[in-house]
TrEMBL record:
Domain of life: Bacteria
Function: Required for maturation of urease via the functional incorporation of the urease nickel metallocenter.
Chain spans, region Disordered: 1-22
Protein family membership: Belongs to the UreD family.
Entry annotated with the keyword Chaperone: yes
Complex formation: UreD, UreF and UreG form a complex that acts as a GTP-hydrolysis-dependent molecular chaperone, activating the urease apoprotein by helping to assemble the nickel containing metallocenter of UreC. The UreE protein probably delivers the nickel.
N-terminal signal peptide: none
Gene (name only): ureD
Record key words, sorted: Chaperone, Cytoplasm, Nickel insertion
Pfam families: UreD
Keyword Electron transport: no
InterPro entries in the record: UreD (IPR002669)
Protein name listed in UniProt: Urease accessory protein UreD
Length: 252
């Protein structure tokens, strides 16, 4: 911890254990980022990210790094929502994700929502590097403000690369200081929960799902590669989760 805020990094390494399961030779976190292994499901290792203190606050810098080796399967969730809060430290908070998956490996990144509280400033950067033959389910959900509250300023960038080639690189900015019109009918249309789901599967090389709408504020879009993107808006976090869960189930 410094006067500029808290610096904390959590690291996960998943490897094929040679016995039909997945080992976790590295599972370490510090400060507010604690990692707990939970009961495995088949050959999949499961890890829960537990927030040991409030945050991120203004001036904090959190990072999570996960590396999935060949033949390993890793499922990462979180015990509760992440809440971006205003803090005494000057400047915005940062939350960086750096995820890598080797050929034949699989990562399911399914944390709880990120809530942007009034007065907070948070920049999120997520970089996913996949080798050819890797599998990915990546969910990102953001809630703008608590009940009846205006949001803080939230900027989020997600980049997904496969074999060094970019599948997706997009950024969204919401709240005070974001480009004008972010809350208008052409962007969020007054919705306060937004999310996306990226699914990468080798079998999509043979047959990529068709683009289609999922109700009024959600859609499945194929990417240039064995991947699809689901984007969704909703009035609240529960409705958003329902839409994304239904979209994932529809992909098989």
């Amino acid at each position: 911890m410094t006067t500029a805020g808290v610096r904390a990094t959590a690291r996960i390494s998943a490897r094929d254990d040679g016995r039909g399961g997945t080992a976790l030779p590295v599972l370490e976190g510090d400060g507010p980022l604690a990692l707990r292994r939970t009961r495995a499901s088949g050959d999949e290792a499961r890890v829960m990210l537990v927030g040991a203190m409030s945050g991120p606050l203004g001036g904090d810098h959190f990072a999570v790094e996960a590396d999935v080796g060949e033949g390993a399967r890793l499922h990462v969730g979180s015990a509760a929502a992440t809440i971006a809060l205003p803090g005494q430290g000057k400047g915005e908070a940062r939350y960086d994700l750096r995820l890598t998956v080797a050929a034949g490996g699989e990562l399911r990144w399914l944390p709880e929502q990120l809530i942007s509280v009034k007065g907070s400033e948070l920049e999120v950067s997520s970089l996913v590097e996949l080798a050819p033959g890797a599998r990915l389910v990546f969910r990102e959900e953001q809630v703008l403000g608590r009940a009846g509250e205006e949001p803080g300023r939230l900027t989020s960038r997600l980049t997904v690369r496969l074999g060094g080639r970019t599948l997706l690189d997009q950024e969204v900015a919401c709240g005070p200081g974001a480009p004008g019109g972010w809350d208008g009918p052409a962007v969020l249309a007054g919705c306060r929960a937004l999310g996306q789901l990226v699914v990468v599967r080798p079998e999509f090389e043979e047959r990529l799902p068709e683009p289609r709408a999922l109700g009024e504020y959600a859609a499945i879009s194929p990417l240039v590669g064995p991947a699809v993107l689901v984007t969704a808006l909703a009035g609240d976090a529960l409705r958003l989760r329902r839409v994304l869960d239904e979209a994932l189930a529809s992909l098989g």
